[in-house]
Protein: Cytokinin riboside 5'-monophosphate phosphoribohydrolase
Amino acid sequence: METAGALGHELAMRSLTCVYGGSCTGLMKQLADSALAAGGKVVGVTVQALKDREEFHQGLTELHVLPTKHERKHLMVQLSDGFVALPGGIGTFEEFFEVYTLQQMGFHAKPFGLLNVNGFFEPLELMLETAEKEGFLKNSHQEAIIRAVNPDEILDLIIKRGV
Structure:
């Protein structure tokens, strides 16, 4: 929670808009609350099916509600200049790999990274290293991932790569 809050605050301090799913729970709520409290802009992007059954953050700068998950992810990529994955569940992994795959296929050239809080992404890093060793992943693809352990560091690296 502390790191999510620090990331939200740092995004606002750097005048970077936070784009996320718009939820009002967990780490993402902390991220949004911190960015908003620091005067930042926060944009939520969700699908109608979730909007109909879940509570969404009431203080967002904007909330986009789309009919399909595919359209949601497409708009999130369009609205974003870079991507940071915080610890999370299957949705986090799915979105991380979507951004990773789209970059490798040449659909975007935006920087993306893993904010490795308390070693959360170490098993994923091992899996990626194994995929590279076995010839399923090029070293250049591995090098595309920005890796950091704190919000300042990951944002510095993302900005350096092109935000």
